[in-house]
UniProtKB/TrEMBL annotation:
This is Disease resistance protein At4g27190-like leucine-rich repeats domain-containing protein. The keyword Calcium does not apply. It comes from the Eukaryota. It holds the Pfam family LRR_RPS2.
Amino acid sequence: MRTTQWPSLKQMDIIECPKLQIFTRQCPVSQVGISNQQPLFCVNEDGTFPVLEELTLNTNDMTSATLPYSFIRSLPKLQKLVINNASISEIVWSEGLSKEERHTSVFYQLKDLRLSQLPELTLKTFKPSLLSFKNLTTLEVSRCHGFINLIACSTAKCLTLLERLSIDDCEMIEEIIACEAEEIQGGMVFPKLKYLQLSCLPCLASFSLAHHSLEFPVLLMVMVTKFPQMRNFCQGDLSTPRLEQMHLTRDEEGELQWEGDLNTTIKHMLDEMNGQNSEVTEVTDQLPKLE
């Protein structure tokens, strides 16, 4: 029941504790009316983890994986956050926040964000007003089937330091970046992105469906696999001047031939598919009908 402080702790992993309520926003002041299940940490005091740099929550559908605002506000040094296998609809617990708090970003030092098996997590959770992505270098999302779009255009424009982007096995994603008409002026640049992976995305139609240019000035490696609905990489102009490696597969049939740029390669793949479908149709039409 005592408030604790961890002034030297830099890494904390909470693994496979499904019945554990990890965080609460207030510590009870008396024993009256207290349930048998007590939280692991009380977060009504700032400075509990003043130097914590890495936090991993892999707790098999734990009672509470959503991070209370009062807790994350006291993590000024957090650089890596991993959340896996939990039924949460938002990363930051925003309920009850004041108007000022809702417009105050947190995780200023966050560089590495990895989210996996969070089926209820949706686009609305990636709000720049709460989560600061300005220092993010790695973003990995896998088995998060609640997404239709991954991030909003306004959030994507904050990813100026992003070096690695990996999206895997998200059944409903149709595009990675969603932009409104008023947001697409001037195009979009990912100045530091070197590695891009898009795999097992059965509904993916395009990296972005909006008509704006995309620039990846230092992109070196792209891996795109199993994208049956993808029609092109983007709708507007695409610039990848340093792209050196390309791994692109439609399905288990093998790699596709690189045609010089992503849009042309994907279009060539579609032309081949349409040609094969036409041949199958012609052969079928020539078969004698059975009486």
